[in-house]
Each structure stands twice: as structure tokens, then as C-alpha cells.
Amino acid sequence: MRTPPRVLTVAGSDSGGGAGIQADLKTMLALGTHGMSVLTAVTAQNSLGVQGAWELPADAVRAQFRSVVDDIGVQAVKTGMLSSPELVETVAALLAGVSAPVVVDPVGVSKHGDALLAASALTAVRTKLLPTATLATPNLDEVAQLTGVRIREEADLPRAAAAVLGFGPRWVLIKGGHLEGDAVDLLTDGTEEHWLRAPRHDNRHTHGTGCTLASAVAARLALGDTVPRAVAAAKEYVTGAIAGGFRLGAGIGPVDHGWRLRERPGA
User: Residues 120-126: what's their mean pLDDT?
Assistant: First the structure.
């Protein structure tokens, strides 16, 4: 019996199942890997927004991480919601001892505009967490939060990427999904540039897009892809998931993590 590649997500729980730990594990399974989790926070969350959030103690986060890594091992790690300086510093210290690739999704604000990262944690993200990253995957709002660079058009993406790379990740993927026109992202390590484009789908049900993309990249890295190949495959997967996003509750529904399964005859 073959053991699938093992991928660890360090993130918060989304009780509505569209983002966070739940989206990460669904994505990892869909892409043929074994997902594992370190829970950093519990949220009361649905299609309308975040009604409450409760951070776990740093000791609980550290114990979960050591439990998984020391016994099972990991071939890639993805980080998501780390709401406080203490949690950011705790996770960054743990990641410094891991040789597997690390995908950092610097989650700052939810799809509904709810703050998920304390302003006091930004320095720790810049100086402690981002230097551990094989790849950082900020969206436009997160770029502005971290660097002060405001992106208004596609031509601004290289400047934003350079600003994020200044904090130490090996690669950065600037997600331009909030710009007009096609969904365009820029992947770069400061030397190579890879522009990724996909048609924009007229679908408001996009909850969990960022978590899903970062987890898909981590899964592909665990499968042995290079960073450019992993990002291209993840972009293709998340584009299909957005196209299949569905209504759930009275607000913004989730992307469809199982869209490939549903495309199969008889599924």
C-alpha cells in the first residue's frame, strides 16, 4: 500500500467549511495527498461573515505541530490564519526546523472584510514568518497591509512582488484577482517572472479561494513539482473550483473543492 505525500496545514477553522483548515484538507485530498492539521484558532463563521474568533494557546499549537512532524513527518507545509504576534513567532520558530517547502498565505482579512490578523502581528509576519517561506501568496489587500504598496493595475505587480521579496521568501505569488479583466497573478523569485492568466468567471461564490490556492501549491510541492509547476497546477485547480462555486446560506458561498470528481461520468 502506497503512502501518499503528507501535507500539513497550520491555520484556523472555518465552521462553514469553505475556507481555513476545512478548505485546506479538502484541497489536499482532491490533489492526491494526505492532509494533516495544526489548529491555530476557532471561528464562528458562515456565508455572511465571521461572528467570532478564538485563538488557541501557543502551547497547544506547538504540541500539535510536534505531534505530527515528529511521528508522521511532512513533505510540505502551508500556513494560514495566525492572528497574534505570539502565534506568528511560535509557528515561525517551528518552521525554521523543517526542511520541507513552506507556503505562507499571510491571511489578513476574510472574504467579508473581517480582520483576521492583529496589526501588532504585522512586524512578526514580516521579520519572522516570511523569511521561512519557500513561497508567499499575498493578495492585493495583504500586499498593501504588509508593504504599503497599493496595486491599481497589472503594471504594479512587479513592484509589489519586489517589496514582498524584500522580507525574505524565496518566491512570491502576487494574486491579482481583484484587478479588472482576466485573473492575472505574478510569480517571481526576483530573477524569473511567470505570469499566470485565467478567464474571470462571473460567480460571486468564491469563499476560500486564497486558502485553496495556497494548499494546492503545497500539495503539488509535496508531489515533487518545482515552484513554477506547482503554482501553475494550483492555478488551474482553483480556477475550476471558482467556476464551480455554489450557493450556501444567504451570503457568499464556497468554491467547489471537489469539482474534478463531479466532472467524472457517474459522479
Answer: 90
pLDDT one-digit tens code per residue, 17-61 = 999 999 999 999 999 999 999 999 999 999 999 999 999 999 999
What angle, rounded to 10 degrees, do the helices at 227-243 and 209-222 form?
140
The residues, any chain, with a CB within 8 Å of residue 127's CB and separated by 6 or more, are 167
The single-letter DSSP state of residue 132 is: G
Is 206 catalytic? The answer is: yes
Whose cell is 507545509? That residue is 77
Around 243, how many Cα atoms within 13 Å sit in the side-chain half-sphere?
A: 14
Task: Give catalytic status of residue 175 as yes or no.
Answer: yes
Catalytic annotation present for 16: no
Cβ–Cβ < 8 Å for 217, 28:
no
pTM equals 0.95
Q: Are 27 and 233 in contact (CB under 8 A)?
A: no
pLDDT of residue 114: 58
User: Is 78 one of the annotated active-site residues of the chain?
Assistant: no
pLDDT of 82 higher than 90? yes
Selecting among 78, 175, 176, 245, the annotated active-site residue is 175
What is the rounded CA–CA span in Å between residue 79 and residue 116?
13
Q: Which of 35, 208, 244, 253 is catalytic?
A: 208
The single residue of 210, 240, 244, 253 carrying the catalytic annotation is 210
- In the chain, the amino acid numbered 267 is A
- pLDDT tens, residue by residue, 58-73: 999 999 999 999 999 9
Known catalytic residue at 211 = yes
